[in-house]
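Narrative of activities, Objective 1.

The group set out to show that a structural description can be obtained from nothing but a protein's sequence at a throughput compatible with the screening campaign. Below is one input-output pair from the validation batch, recorded exactly as produced.
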Amino acid sequence: MLVYKNPASNGQAATQIWNPPAASPFLWPRGLTLEPNTGALWVTDTGNNRLERFLNGTVTHVLGDNDLVRDGDWCTGTDWSTCAPHGTIGFDRDGKIYTPDVDSQRVKKFPSASPVGGAVVNPSGLMFDLPGRNSNTYANHVGPSGLANPGFVVFAGTQMVVADRWRIAFWNNYTNTATFSGGNASGVLAQDDMTSQEANAFNGGGNFTSLAYDATRKLLYATVADMIDVWSVGTGLTSGQALVQQFRASDLMTPTGTILPCFNNSCSLTHLTVDAANDIGWLVDSTSNRVLRITSLSSATNRRVDLVLGQSDLTSHICNRGRGSGNVAGNTIANGFCDPSEVVLDAQGNVFVVDGTWECREGNCRVVEYQKSDIPAPNGTLQAPSANPVRVYGVSDFTSSTCDPSTGRLCSPRFIAFDPRDGAMVATGDGYHNPLNKRLAVWTNPTKAGLTAPLPTAFYTSLPINQAGSVAFDANGYMAVHDHTWNRITLFKTNACNPATEDCGGGGGTGGASGTGGAGATGGSRSSGGSTNTGGSTSTGGSRSTGGAVSTGGSTGTSTPCAGLCTNPVTFSTANYNSGSLGVTATCHQTTAAIVNCNCGNMGSRTFTINGTTMTCNFQNFASLPTKRNGGYCFQASAGTPDYAYFATF
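Output recorded for this entry:
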């Protein structure tokens, strides 16, 4: 600890340095508290599971221990009475001491501290020792509306489902933002009720790490440790329903009938994605730095591991095909993995692997894409293709694991998802490697020909995220983003890529882009507006406008383009303009800018006119524009649905 007397200038030297005894140095000190009346200083020495009282630089008393001898980290010793204390402590008027204990998620009350070498003092009371808490560093209280370090989010049919440590919560009415924001979940799986988190029959004492939905068979899969749980979704999940299947890594077999080998008899089944059309599962085993393909996934008797990516066989396990961790220069290779954490398929069947984990650690800190044509089809044998990926995201090439966010890259990408409407890829970035407002990026054309390390099209700059986690899309443009350290799921409506003004890809599973969104300038986002999260505050999202300033009101004089056609038009002043979502009410816009052409889309049964002439909205540029009116153009959309109708000018 550095002690400053009357600090008044930059770079001023410390007056004193206080240390604990040399044989017992600090380990992650996380708090300083001045004791009332005496001025003694308490240090919260988190990694040593103790708190030390300094008086004039000397340790006089201890909480959680008594001898200042290192006993080991994270409560592996024998003479501690508090575990991983964090932050400052408190004193009541009677001199009792209150300490926050992270491992047990309680505040402990101590009658006094132990003099160094004296008897260990145990707590005399506990706060927040509530039902639903267990001894495995879980939340001190759970309920229907709170999350505790959630792990994953997915849409299953008409429900939004969240993996929340030992439980899985789901919401039936997630699109109703009035009830969703901070609102109660509709039900829970893997626990007895919404206030419990101690049942372990479904998870074996581990956290659920991923969720996957098979829309064809209406099955929900959840990975946890070396196990996969399966529930039938049917017409919707119901609270407390039973499993339809549960299988472990030891239940998986190769095409020849041999059991899947796991390094040290331990497979970490980190993430599963489902190719529902072919009943195939793609599974990440992070322990062996590999991705496995499973045929006949839904069949307990016929499922087989028939392909491995990242290793040359099923017995190899070392990072980067034997070279070692990605944080050592020269180890990272194109077709090897290190700490892989997610595998995702786009609508064309290309395979994307998130090759890194939280904080990246020893990983390769990237996403790699394998083309579908380079992945051999199932043929009843075990295959280990050595094909190289064709693209990499997050780093500049296939042999680098370092990244500079100032270059416009999303460093250490953590999770990815594809918008089913237009094929755009959204990725979250690790909080240790990206600025606060640049941890959520979008590629509107992620597989653009000729690029091996494409930069993001844009960032969602108005949505601050701490540790950005998984992303999920439903079919209607709702995007859910999970933030596991801020304990929330943020949900907001997004616009699809507009092919008239943006560099869009080949389209999602339902065909091309619907053209609802803002145009393609970088730096913004595809969000159409507000967002709602389960934990409280509302974020504004942000939009990717291509045009100039937009003002409401506009002129209604006789010389304006919309005069006599509509009132209170939105006036814009640049040729490149995108309306964004028009909503469901009648709208009008006007401009006298030098517009060359225009297109529109998603009008449904609504009508769209320019200067009173009805136009056909099929996402194509118009052959020509009507004659100017009062020196410009008036664009009108009648009331109706869908609400994400749009028009764009250029």
